[in-house]
From TrEMBL:
GO biological process: microtubule-based movement
Keywords assigned by UniProt, alphabetized: ATP-binding, Coiled coil, Cytoplasm, Cytoskeleton, Microtubule, Motor protein, Nucleotide-binding
Pfam families: KIF9, Kinesin
Organism listed in the record: Prolemur simus
Record PANTHER family: CENTROMERE PROTEIN E, KINESIN MOTOR DOMAIN-CONTAINING PROTEIN
Protein name: Kinesin-like protein
Length: 811
């Protein structure tokens, strides 16, 4: 049993640009603890937080300042917990802090760079690496991903997500068994045999969470997310199984309702916006007070799920995320206060071992048989019936393994059955006689053989050659996978509407072309992995396709609008950056693949040269050369594997960014469409249009929305605008837009000041220009045109001489 208080760490987030930074200092001098001093600015101290105190001191195990990177956080905070989980203890890491303080960044990671990946992906990577190294045990890993929103539990990995929305799925509920163990009904567990599969599950959960989020359901700030890695281990042949769980928790934002202070006094203790955080605090207060017999775990779902992590069988770590800008100082002080209480809680982690009932039954059956045999001997009962074929075969197997066992203490256990004992003696006698005959012939052949060293050497070479062949195959597979990855990246670069689903499938099928045998072998050996792949990445891609890949069904205008939306979106820079990095990684991997081939070739040459007839010295030199090449080869091979993981991760990031982009576009589009319906033919109804979310770079040139380089975007007829270049329109759109038949006084005024071009468009009656009749297509087209008009309008408004006359829209 390991007794330990909850470990508390603090992480200070870099300030948001243009925000005034608060004053704080970190003292690292003391052993094992660091202290954080926060200075409250006078204007805030005066009545906002507490009785004009100006300086606050908090102790933490360690404090990570703004410059601490994700690797440091993992190494110092998560790795020790992951190690104890591997040893069989439960572990929990939870991030606590106000919205925007970096909880998600710390737990899951940033969506932009590979180096920004957070605790979950790094821990998965570490755990799978360790599992691969340890061949003494059999491990199984399962993943679950739970979201708690408004006291309701949702399974983020429920495969039915694809078909229905989060709210329609069965809620995750808590069940308690007589031993007061918590079980979660409707929470799916997914086996992950590799890091890649586990990452796919993380991605899937995050995407489902993002898709479910609406302005009414601010999942990312109001919900708690618990990503759990379930690890079981067993030594081969043993009936004892160890289970350990690692919860990685991203809590809801800890901000509280506005506090009201009068005359410098804090009137009431501020309340959390999130009710379950309030219950969490109550549990923590109860645990930190001595002699409290009742701990109110049952009050909320979150405290029930995390019961073991809080004052129970678990090694728990809290990360207080702090945003120490001046305006956030009071929330940061609250977070630190909470952490100080958490630090008082003692946990007692024990190894969770249980006996596998199946193995136990086998063991007991054997014991019963032995006892029966013994009883038979003691009671003098003699068995006369002959041993069966199977029993004889079993006995001979036992004798063989007994003879092969090098341990002088080993015993031949056949039970107390005299028939078996007799048969063993018989069989041993037979073997001994055979050995004698064989031994004679061996001695005679040995005397003929001059050099008995040679076959050994030959054998060694053969072994090395076999290993080389094996590596060859591995490289072939990796190189082929890389080729496919590269092709995918190129496809992604050239075509954003690629059918990822199919592609993923082909990527996941690791068949090296032209080597069907190898492919088949891999197919057989990884049949289970394949099945998993279809349920994770296959599912992921189909989810991407179904939830966001509606572009195939989009009308032309909408597709075009999406292209522009995408280009002008702030995230497009990230996507482009990641594409660049991905490209770099591919070429790095390619170069590495070539170096590996070269190294392999050299190994081949050295081996072929190392014929037994060589003088010792030369052979020795060749041998060391060979060893050196092999070492180099191994290092490069490991690097290539790491690159593969990185490439996969980058692709996940890009997929995620695309989902986000599409989601934002759909939201924007829906809003525009509904605005159109709410405000039908109003003159100058463009003013309510929301512009695309844009980067500052794109804002300076909104005209690019109107004129893309290829000139494919149909232009809007804008006879009212003085900008000549805005006035050319495509028929397709022009026929759906009419100058207002009854312009408002303001628009009439405007038209008077407009250019002759403006007057050149004849005003036709509305009814003479029908729309397509398809309301969906029409509203799509209209929304698109309105978006353009909006920007056009802005452009014209910006210039004092340019005016836009109102349009009428009909649908
Ligand atoms: P929370 O989950 O607490 O609401 P986020 O993790 O979403 O906060 O962080 C808010 C923003 O700040 C994100 O854009 C994130 O990338 C950024 N951020 C947070 N912590 C850091 C950090 N340590 N370094 C760089 N950027 C950070
Ligand atoms: Mg968050």
């Amino acid at each position: 049993m390991v007794k330990q208080t909850i470990q508390i760490f603090a992480r200070v987030k870099p300030p948001v640009r243009k925000q005034q930074q608060g004053i704080y200092s970190i003292d690292e001098d003391e052993k094992l603890t660091s202290s954080l001093e926060i200075i409250l600015p006078r204007d805030l101290a005066d009545g906002f937080v507490n009785n004009k105190r100006e300086s606050y001191n908090f102790k933490f195990q360690r404090i990570f300042d703004q410059d601490a990177n994700q690797e440091t956080i993992f190494e110092n905070i998560a790795k020790p917990v992951a190690e104890s989980v591997l040893a069989g203890y439960n572990g929990t890491i939870f991030a606590y802090g106000q919205t925007g303080s970096g909880k998600t960044f710390t737990i899951t990671g940033g969506a932009e760079r590979y180096s920004d990946r957070g605790i979950i992906p790094r821990t998965l990577s570490y755990i799978f690496e360790q599992l691969q190294k340890d061949s003494s045990k059999i491990y199984t890993t399962h993943i679950s991903y739970l979201e708690i929103y408004n006291e309701c539990g949702y399974d983020l990995l429920d495969p039915r997500h694809e078909a229905s929305s989060l709210e329609d799925l069965p809620k995750v509920t808590i069940l308690e068994d007589p031993e007061q163990n918590i079980h979660l009904r409707n929470l799916s567990l997914h086996q992950a045999t590799t890091e890649e599969e586990a990452l796919n599950l993380l991605f899937l959960g995050d995407t489902n969470r993002m898709i479910a989020e609406t302005p009414m359901n601010q999942a990312s700030t109001r919900s708690h997310c618990i990503f759990t890695i379930h690890l079981s281990s067993k030594e081969p042949g043993s009936a004892t199984v160890r289970h350990a769980k690692l919860h990685l928790v991203d809590l809801a934002g800890s901000e509280r309702v506005a506090k009201t202070g009068v005359g410098g006094q804090l009137l009431t203790e501020a309340k959390y916006i999130n009710l379950s955080l309030h219950y969490l605090e109550q549990v923590i207060i109860a645990l930190s007070e001595k002699h409290r017999s009742h701990i109110p775990y049952r009050n909320s779902m979150m405290t029930s799920v995390l019961r073991d992590s809080l004052g129970g069988n678990c090694m728990t770590t809290m990360i207080a995320t702090l945003s120490l800008e001046k305006r956030n100082i009071d929330e940061s002080i609250s977070t630190c206060r909470f952490a100080q209480r958490v630090a008082l809680i003692k946990n007692e982690a024990v190894l969770n071992e249980e006996i596998d009932p199946r193995l136990m039954i086998i063991r007991l059956q054997k014991e019963i048989q032995e006892l029966k045999d013994e009883l038979a001997i003691v009671t003098g009962e003699r068995r006369t019936e002959a041993l069966t074929e199977a029993e004889l075969l079993q006995l001979e197997k036992l004798i063989t393994s007994f003879l092969e066992d090098q341990d002088p203490e080993s015993r031949l256990e056949v039970g107390a059955d005299m028939r078996k004992i007799h048969h063993c003696f018989h069989h041993l006698k037979k073997l001994l006689n055979e050995k004698k005959i064989l031994g004679n012939s061996i001695v005679s052949s040995e005397s003929k053989d001059q050099d008995c060293q040679e076959p050994l050497k030959e054998e060694e070479y053969k072994k090395l050659r076999d290993i080389l062949k094996q590596r060859d195959n591995e490289i072939n597979i990796l190189v082929n996978m890389l080729k496919k990855e590269k092709k995918k990246a190129q496809d992604a670069l050239h075509s954003s509407s690629m059918d990822r689903s199919e592609f993923r499938r082909s990527q996941n099928s690791p068949f090296p072309p032209g080597n069907p045998e190898e492919g088949q072998r891999r197919l057989l050996s990884s049949a289970s992995t394949q099945a998993q792949d279809f349920s994770t990445s296959g599912y992921r891609s189909s989810l991407l396709h179904n939830k966001t890949g509606m572009r195939g069904e989009m009308s032309l205008g909408r597709q075009e609008a999406f292209e522009i939306f995408k280009r002008d979106h702030a995230d497009s820079i990230t996507i482009d950056d990641n594409k660049q990095i991905l490209k770099q990684r591919f070429s790095e991997a390619k170069a590495l693949g070539e170096s590996i081939n070269e190294a392999r070739r050299k190994i081949g040459i050295s081996e072929n040269m190392a014929v037994p007839s060589m003088p010792d010295l030369q052979e020795e030199r060749l041998r060391s050369q060979l060893e050196e090449e092999k070492r180099r080869y191994k290092t490069m091979f490991t690097r290539l594997k790491a690159l593969k993981v990185e490439i996969e991760h980058l692709q996940l990031l890009m997929d995620k960014a695309k989902v986000k982009l599409q989601k934002e576009f759909e939201a924007w589009w829906a809003e525009e469409a509904s605005n159109l319906q709410v405000k039908p033919p109003a003159v100058n109804s463009l003013n309510h249009m929301k512009p695309f979310p844009q980067t500052s770079e794109s804002q300076h040139d909104q005209s690019q929305f109107l004129f893309n380089k290829s000139g494919q975007v149909p232009q809007i007829p804008s006879p009212q605008c003085e900008c000549q270049d805005l006035g050319v329109g495509s028929d397709m759109y022009a026929r759906k837009i009419l100058p207002s038949p009854c312009p408002s006084p303001r628009s009439q005024e405007q038209s008077r000041t407009s250019t002759p071009l403006g007057n050149s468009t004849p005003e036709r009656p509305v009814s003479s220009v029908p729309l397509t009749g398809d309301s969906q297509t029409d509203s799509d087209i209209l929304a698109f045109i309105k978006a353009r008009q909006n920007i056009l309008q802005k452009k014209c408004n910006n210039s004092s001489t340019q005016k836009v006359r109102g349009f009428h829209f009909y649908s």
